[in-house]
Design goal:
single chain, 377 residues, alpha+beta, nine-stranded mixed sheet, 10 helices, 38% helix
Length: 377
């Protein structure tokens, strides 16, 4: 029996020509640059610490490298024979679909093999000049070879944001009297359901006999546990409590999750909701017809308590501050959530004039002249 076929045209859009691909990646190059500015501004406004800002900035740099690589992979879309076409999530995220990041990782593992079979850039440039002089036509095949050469050079030479970015530890201090070290553990995923980059930052107190990153018994288990829990549907409270229970000498003092999207754009996406109406009324020129959601969930420990873990055993467990809603005391598993939009100035003007009440409580990072970022409540 043949496998069922699924029509993804409703959710996905294929960039089927070189011009559309170039416009899309040029837009994201600017947007990622603005996300870096928002990160720096978040540090200045003390919403996150400097170390957290540095970590987040590195992930954004890696994301930029991944998008740069994809831009060369699809530079000659529908112009050269054999050139592929990129798919993006047009109804939810505005980002490339998850399979693009999976293929990126596969290509990165084989980048050296491809580079060994492709001529060097200097050779390709000379061949293109000779082709133009002798044939008096565009050297399409050579241009495609050059784009692929740069694609694999980027994969081989630059750190990338992949579908899974495994946990790393950054040492931030120690308490000699209490015999504990403090780390920020960080990891990231390209969420397969939302098609959005998601970054996790966890502050951990370590009372183990060996420093966590050098402990061959604990560190691999910690990495596996954190990656297994890197799912957007899981509440931060669930992740933190599970970690606190599984690792007796590691105390998670805070946990943050950054959702770097979705991106809305009249030129590329078909999301519904008030932000679509804002962009429609702004009627901005190409390159300025977009907005990006920036959401940060934060869970904070307010202390610890001595809890029985068996008939004869007990252990310290973290007590987390939760943001309760409703009369039944239900929570969304975080201490607070900070929602923000990054958007160009014209779209912000429309939002403030006609839709301001619908965006109460959302911080607005507005891109002004010379790409300066202004922050408004």
């Amino acid at each position: 029996m043949a496998a069922p076929k699924f029509d993804l045209t409703y959710e996905h859009r294929v960039l089927d020509n070189a011009r559309a691909a170039r416009r899309y990646f040029a837009k994201f190059e600017r947007i990622i640059g603005h996300m870096r500015s928002v990160t720096r501004l978040s540090v200045e406004e003390r919403q996150i610490g400097k170390t957290e800002g540095d970590i987040l900035g590195q992930y954004l740099s890696d994301l930029s490298n991944s998008f740069t690589a994809l831009s060369y992979k699809y530079l000659m879309t529908n112009r050269a024979s054999g050139s592929g076409k990129m798919s993006l999530d047009k109804t939810e995220s505005g980002f490339p679909v998850f399979s693009e990041l999976i293929q990126l990782a596969t290509d990165a593992r084989q980048a050296k093999l491809h580079l060994g079979s492709l001529p060097e850039q200097d050779r390709l440039k000379k061949d293109m000049v000779n082709h133009i002089l002798s044939e008096q036509t565009a050297p399409i095949d050579l241009q495609y070879a050059m784009a692929q050469r740069i694609y694999y050079e980027t994969l081989d030479g630059q750190p990338l944001f992949l579908s899974q970015n495994h946990p790393q530890a950054v040492w931030v201090g120690k308490d000699i009297k209490k015999k504990k070290r403090r780390y920020i553990l960080h990891w990231a995923v390209y969420d397969s359901k939302t098609n959005i980059p998601v970054v996790y930052l966890m502050k951990v107190d370590d009372t183990g006999s060996r420093a966590l990153p050098q402990d061959e018994r604990r560190w691999p288990r910690v990495q596996d546990a954190l990656m297994a829990q890197a799912v957007s549907e899981l509440k931060l409270l669930t992740i933190a409590k599970g970690f606190d229970t599984d690792f007796r000498d590691l105390a998670p003092k805070s946990l943050r999750r950054f959702h770097l999207g979705p991106m809305h754009s009249h030129a590329f996406t078909e999301q519904h909701g008030p932000i679509r109406d804002v962009l429609a009324e702004a009627d901005s020129p190409p390159g300025l017809d977009w907005s990006l959601a920036w959401t940060v969930e934060t869970l904070l420990s307010e202390g610890q308590e001595w809890v029985k873990t068996g008939i004869f055993n007990a252990a310290w467990r973290q007590v987390y501050t939760l943001d309760a809603y409703g009369l039944d005391g239900k929570t969304d598993g975080y201490t607070r959530i900070d929602r923000a939009l990054i958007l160009p100035h014209r779209a912000y003007q429309v939002l403030e004039e006609k839709y301001s009440e619908r965006f109460d409580g959302v911080r607005k990072y507005v891109v002004g002249r010379n790409d300066t970022i202004l922050s408004y409540r």
